[in-house]
Amino acid sequence: LGGETEWTIQCPTEAGIYKDGKGFNPCAVTVAPDGSIFIADGYGSNYLLKFDKNRKFLKAVGGPGEEEGKFKTCHGIGLDTRQDKPLLLVCNRNNNRVEHWDLDGNFVKVIQKGLRMPAGVHIRGDHAVIPELQGRVTVLEKNGQIAAQFGDNSDEKQRANFGLPPDQWKDGVCNSP
């Protein structure tokens, strides 16, 4: 709580996917009930990495690609306890979909597709809030159906535009949530 580093996870060279120990650029992390740590390496290898509670590397799953079970920027990740058993909810950002993976690292299913670069996830109660980098926020029901979408930016030039001048911002409209 004082801002001191307690531990770190280094590039898992034993995974066999990192050349010369380079390319490890994680986007998000979540922790399973047993203490296992899952890292979405979306800016690096496009693998989900699993570590045990002692930070020992266990496996890498997924990898780059467009087909189900592959990633184009696995970005946001969260532990989804809304189901019968805990699952990982993964934002497959540049494939424009969110997916469930089990805690053994197996692809389960696509939950919702056709999103606008889903970038993160926050689960509260029976809903998952998914900010979409391209100007919208989607709320998903427990069953994966869309409950609501808001902040929709109809101007495609403003979507994912981090340099949008403040005088062009509009209340209630997102550009890159």
Low-confidence stretches: none
**Integer-rounded radius of gyration:** 17 Å
Shape: globular
Q: State the oligomer.
A: single chain
Structural class by sheet pairing and helices: mainly beta
Q: In DSSP terms, counting alpha (H) and pi (I) runs of 4 or more, how many helices?
A: 0
Q: Tell me the helix content.
A: under 10%
Number of strands: 12
Order of helices and strands: EEEEEEEEEEEE
Distance between termini? 28 Å
Instruction: Write out the strand line-up for the largest beta sheet, numbering strands in chain order.
Output: 1-2-3-4
Largest sheet: 4 strands, antiparallel
Nearest-integer average pLDDT: 96
Percentage beta strand: 35-45%
Structure description:
- With 177 residues, the chain is an all-beta fold.
- The protein contains no helices and 12 strands.
- The strands form 3 sheets. A 4-stranded antiparallel sheet has the order 1-2-3-4, with no helix packed on it. Strands 5-6-7-8 form a 4-stranded antiparallel sheet, with no helix packed on it. Strands 9-10-11-12 form a 4-stranded antiparallel sheet, with no helix packed on it.
- It is globular and about 45 Å long.
Brief descriptors of the model:
177 residues; mainly beta; 4-stranded antiparallel β-sheet; 36% strand; globular
